[in-house]
Amino acid sequence: MTVHHPTPAPNTAVSAETASADMSQGEARTPRRVLRILLWHVHGSWTTAFVHGGHTCLLPATPDRGPDGRGRARTWDWPRNAVDTPWERIRGSEPDLVILQRPHELALAERLLGRTLGRDVPAVYVEHNTPRNDVPVTRHPMADRDDIPVVHVTHFNDLFWDCGRAPTRVIEHGVPDPGYRYTGETARTGVVLNEPLRRWRFTGTDLLPTLAERVPLDLFGMGVAGVPDHFGLPPSRLRAHEDLPQGAMHDQLARRRAYAHPLRWTSLGLSLIEAMMLGLPVAVLGTTEAHEAVPPEAGTVSTDPRVLAEALHAFHEDRDLAFRTGTAARAAALRRYGLTRFLDDWDRVLQEVTS
């Protein structure tokens, strides 16, 4: 088996590459025209980026904080323009725009508002997911409408979803810069997966033992506590860290020598971009959008898990290689997935749809 290790970027200066001129988390900017936008808190990292745009974000909130009423985040630092909105107040909230993210939200929003989306109030559907079932002929829920644009988060998704009559756009992810924190002092590899036992092959959970044979793993995320026992792996090979607050997880990840991203069928895990921005070198399963996100100098991308395991081992053995590759990874992530670019792209779509 031939293993291709990443080539560090030539003459990379840490002080230059680790600096950021992009937005950080917690402070929203002021848009040219402030809109009132109704959207559900579905994906925490994406919503964190979006609410930094400065528009008044009306977040449905219910007493149980269930999937249709999470409201403001409790583990992220969100600006004040993100506003909890009880269901009973949504009808009088008068949004300029509704952002849909799940199929059932169309009927739910129309019931709560008493208005028809696409006719009485503009709407946009953000598609976070890769298609399922009959790929590549899977029909999108909005495919038979031309009055609600579909915004994809990756070009891969735009290519593989059949959106029919619906206008489509691509706005790639934006991530608030967590800052360069990498130390690599802990000779273990970090992995972030949410609900890995339930999602299994989608998240590449089945690949963890192959990686753990070569390097010890620390698994972070929601629903990870039972994973080591499921595989019968001792803490020396796989440890679970259950649902840490985002800031604490970033601090822990930055101490790990490298980051592994085994996800098989997801759009593009934001945890990968966050790890790169923290300064970690990465080894990434080469599916969906991965090859676009990780240039050669930033890490290893392969569809062979054994190649990823060997790349991680190389980072563990050579700290200079790990530092140089991680520095290049941070620079690449800031260039492509900076928050300012994301918000600029969204402002153009929002102003167009509501004009």
Automatic annotation (TrEMBL):
Keyword Transferase: yes
Region described as Disordered: 1-27
SUPFAM superfamilies per UniProt: UDP-Glycosyltransferase/glycogen phosphorylase
Gene3D superfamilies for this protein: Glycogen Phosphorylase B
MF term (GO), any: transferase activity
Keyword field: Transferase
Annotated Polar residues bias: 10-23
Listed name of the protein: Glycosyl transferase
Organism per entry: Nocardiopsis sinuspersici
